[in-house]
């Protein structure tokens, strides 16, 4: 029986001419793009925390959303929240969802009590997954909200907090495994510092490396087949976070022997905070062989905060999907909407409308990206730009068979004077604009 929270129980696809705010105009999940259904390309997921746990607070004001499952203090309310959440997943027709432990269970105090409450909700989720066909894209642990994490989880100066973090991650990995999750995510909001005056960087790096190695060891021990993903972010809430961006995470993985075990979950808003574009982070991960999944959202470009708004800019999203498709597309990853409605968007239908707009934006972006690839001009331009390197001699240079002195000799003996060639940026920008 429906809770009656939402005004409709199914969002139909009505095509680009529809004026119905509760219908898709571009996301037809069965539409074939490059030989694959849109649903299988995009692999959309709803984020439990933003849509069902966030109460509308900001740094200057308290809750604005008066949902019947707030406050988060009883199992009864947690069950109602789960009912409404799965009604929304089904209404939107998303294949996936994601959650933290603290999003889905009440905070009843101690570790053992919270674990029991968590496991009870996980069994409810397992039943609901079966009934609705909705699956888990990833699970994760909230190691940042409670005051115990204020000085870090894995990187805490107190080893007992490290142990508490390990125990929490273990129960979240067990739950993700139980629900058939396709990935497990680690985002270290408090793995960083507020001031270097009280921080030992070398110790904190060692602690974080050991924790991630334990996660990987445990994954293999229980036979979890999902990807382990680290989510980079440069700061907020910490003044500085160690998982600053994709390149920094790659260095960390190499240092701790994890570059073949762990990949990244890249978030648009985090890329912007790091001074990058979303496509920069995606292309970097693809180039390094650690691309895993994305958190899709957008930041307000004026505020300088991680505002976690729903995406609505097709050209931006198109370039992100271009690099994803060019890298082979998602395997176990997907498009998680790590986005929340604004605190004035009070109506239940606002939750649906936000996701509909975001899904349509992503569908248009992906179709534009696929058209760019199928047209082939852009990838061919880049390939051609480097084609000089394909010669056997230059391949030998890359393979280490030619040294600095031999190259110097070649420049002199052959009288090499390279002629610069146009990078054609404006031509390429105009080319992209034909598709978006
Ligand atoms: C915070 C953020 C998190 C992670 C999961 O900025 O993105 O919601 O995605 O912990
Ligand atoms: Co995120």
What does this 3D model show about the protein?
With 436 residues, the chain is α/β, with parallel strands linked by helices. The protein has helices spanning 38-42, 48-53, 75-92, 101-104, 111-132, 159-178, 201-222, 246-255, 268-273, 278-288, 314-326, 348-375, 377-385, 392-398, 404-414, 425-433; strands spanning 32-33, 36-37, 44-47, 96-100, 135-140, 183-186, 192-193, 227-230, 240-241, 262-267, 291-296, 335-337. Helix 6 links the parallel strand 5 (135-140) and strand 6 (183-186). Bound molecules: D-xylulose (XUL) and cobalt (II) ion (CO). D-xylulose is lined by residues 100, 140, 185, 187, 231, 233, 267, 295, 306, 338.
Put simply, the count of helices is: 16
> Which superfamily, in CATH terms, is the homologous superfamily of the largest domain?
Divalent-metal-dependent TIM barrel enzymes
Along the chain, the helix and strand elements come as EEHEHHEHHEHEEHEEHEHHEHEHHHHH
Binned, the helix content reads 40-55%
How far is the N terminus from the C terminus? 42 Å
- Biggest beta-sheet profile: 8 strands, parallel, barrel
Q: Which molecules are bound besides the chains?
A: D-xylulose, cobalt (II) ion
Shape: globular
Specify the CATH architecture of the largest domain.
Alpha-Beta Barrel
How much strand?
5-15%
- The unreliable regions are none
The CATH topology label of the largest domain is: TIM Barrel
The strand order across the widest sheet is 3-4-5-6-8-10-11-12
The average pLDDT value, as a whole number, equals 98
Quickly count the domains: 2
Assembly of the depicted chains:
single chain
Number of strands: 12
Structural class of the secondary structure composition? alpha/beta
């Amino acid at each position: 029986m429906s809770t009656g929270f939402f005004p409709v129980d199914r969002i139909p696809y009505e095509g680009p001419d529809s004026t119905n705010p509760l219908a898709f105009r571009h996301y037809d999940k069965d539409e074939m793009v490059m030989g694959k259904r849109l649903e299988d390309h995009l692999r959309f997921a709803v984020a439990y925390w933003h849509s069902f746990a966030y109460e509308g607070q900001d740094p200057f004001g308290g809750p604005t959303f008066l949902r019947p499952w707030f406050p988060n203090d009883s199992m009864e309310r947690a069950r109602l929240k789960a009912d409404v959440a799965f009604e929304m997943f089904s209404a939107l027709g998303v294949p996936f969802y994601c959650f933290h432990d603290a999003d889905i269970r009440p905070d009843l105090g101690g570790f053992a009590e919270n674990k029991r409450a968590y496991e009870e909700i996980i069994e409810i989720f397992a039943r609901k997954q079966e009934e609705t066909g909705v699956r888990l894209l990833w699970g994760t642990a909230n190691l940042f909200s409670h005051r115990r994490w204020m000085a870090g989880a894995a990187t805490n100066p107190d080893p007992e907090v490290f142990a508490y973090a390990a125990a929490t991650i273990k129960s979240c990995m067990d739950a993700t495994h139980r629900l058939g999750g396709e990935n497990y995510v680690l985002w270290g909001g408090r793995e960083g510092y507020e001031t270097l005056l009280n921080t030992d960087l070398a110790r904190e790096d060692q602690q974080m490396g050991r924790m991630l190695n334990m996660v990987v060891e445990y994954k293999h021990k229980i036979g979890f087949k999902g990807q382990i993903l680290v989510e980079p972010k440069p700061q907020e809430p910490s003044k500085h976070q160690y998982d600053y961006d994709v390149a920094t995470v790659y260095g960390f993985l190499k240092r701790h022997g994890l570059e073949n075990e762990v990949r990244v979950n890249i978030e648009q808003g985090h890329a912007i905070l790091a001074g990058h574009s979303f496509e920069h982070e995606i292309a970097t991960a693809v180039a390094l062989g650690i691309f895993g999944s994305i958190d899709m959202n957008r930041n307000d470009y004026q505020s300088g905060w991680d505002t976690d708004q729903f995406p609505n800019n097709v050209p931006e999203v198109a370039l992100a999907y271009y690099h994803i498709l060019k890298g082979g597309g998602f395997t176990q990853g997907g498009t998680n909407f790590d986005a929340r409605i604004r605190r004035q968007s009070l109506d239940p239908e606002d939750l649906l409308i936000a996701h509909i707009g975001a899904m349509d934006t992503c569908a248009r972006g992906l179709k534009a990206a696929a058209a760019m690839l199928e047209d082939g001009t852009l990838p061919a331009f880049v390939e051609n730009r480097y084609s000089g390197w394909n010669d056997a001699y230059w391949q030998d240079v890359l393979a280490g068979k030619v040294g600095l002195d031999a190259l110097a000799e070649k420049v002199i003996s052959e009288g090499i004077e390279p002629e610069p060639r146009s990078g054609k940026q404006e031509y390429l920008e105009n080319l992209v604009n034909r598709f978006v």
